[in-house]
Amino acid sequence: MSDLAQRQTQSQKQIQKMSQVQIQALKILAMNSRDLRQEIYRAVEENPALEIVNESEKKSARLQNEYSNRTTSSGAEAADANQRVLEAQADRGETLQQHLMAQLELMKIPRDEYELCQKLIYNLDENGCYGSSLAPETLLDKSHPTQNKKMLERCLDRIQRMDPVGTCCRTLEESLLIQARIAGDAPQLALFILDGHLELLSPPQPDRVLKKVLEYQKNWHSKTFARELPIDKISLDEDAAEEAIKYILTLNPRPAGEYVSDTSKADFFRPDVVLTVERVPGAVPSDNFANGIVSGDSSCHFQITYSSGDIPQVRLAQNINFDKILVQQAQAFLQQLQYRESTLALQGCAIVAAQKEFFLHGPGNLVPLTRRQIAKQLGIHESTVSRVSGKKSNRYIQTEWGLFPAEYFFVSGVKTTAGTNASAEKIKAVISDMITSSARPLSDQALTNQLNAQGIKISRRTVNKYRNQLGANNSYNQKSTR
After folding, report:
1. Which of 33, 76, 223, 406 fits 389 for a cystine, CB–CB 3.0-4.6 Å?
2. Separation of alpha carbons 297 and 294, rounded Å
3. Side-chain half-sphere CA neighbours of 169 within 13 A
4. Which residues are paired to 316 by β-bridges?
């Protein structure tokens, strides 16, 4: 018979329990900018020992109202405050975004294309341009394969052709060129001047403009292997210069001028830009993560900066005595905010150090990297890294090569015959080059064979997956669509 008697035994286990403060710190770390703003305003409203500093009245009112509209405990007060704000605002009429969206609603386009157009519209500044906002490429949703560069070009063209013609350009100068191209009746010399040569138009006198154009043409062709200019095949005289000037003066230099820009919905589409990596001239002997410094090469290093964006700055209230418990709670909240900032900055430094070749030379130079490697280097838990760089974290890093989601820098690897790992990003770049340089369409198997010949061990199925992510058709699809 088995012994079923109960016995007492003594064992020792080490169990780590997180305090409420630690749990709240991790919660704040995972918040996006919008939620963090609301959390800060909630904390300030509940604890008089905290105060917000360095915010303009307009910005503070907008963000405070944003929080109040979502607070149920003081619904009546929030409604009154909101009503006062609405009454204080002048009737601005239709905004640029409303005007463009009304036109978009009438178009029968796929849902993904509609959503991308909507993001582009709410990303426009007061001039109707995106140059002072996010680059359009950053608005692509990588979870939707159909949202690629080709769709982006279609959406930009679609919005640029809406009324008013010429919005959704990088600059107002580019808007003039877009207006002329869409009109389709611009003189060749006018198009040449608008395409990055507006300095030739100053002053707008035919004889002076003609002289500058001829000088530019002469200097250009004095260069070795200079390509042909668009104006080489037209007659250049004062009449042509006068015609170009008159045409350019008919264009609208501020197409969005009669509208007020409304970017109130931009936060729904805008990623959290939390880190900026800047290349700084001058080498440094070693990394200094505490000060956001990562060594580069013999000519430069990198400065990693945490970007608070429009998150309000908060501090202990000055020169006022409060209950000791309130002060302790306020200090704990400030420490949690500091933990968020330092954790993001440290992980950014570790990513830059691990992916140094990318930050030195650009896309196509990532190496295999896992979150576990970053966690081990910084001595933190892997889940903490995931909170910052997960697929749904909406955290981005601004680099000289563009704006990239934090998850972009964590890539898997494929073994090579040399015993090293080639990153998925590197293989995609090789596949893209193969497809572009080939005179005929390549099948997945043909690409697989070429990669294997280069020492990259990869399956046809993986090649097919990478091709789809690049938005490139295989030879079978290209034949079937003819």
Report:
1. 406
2. 10
3. 22
4. 50
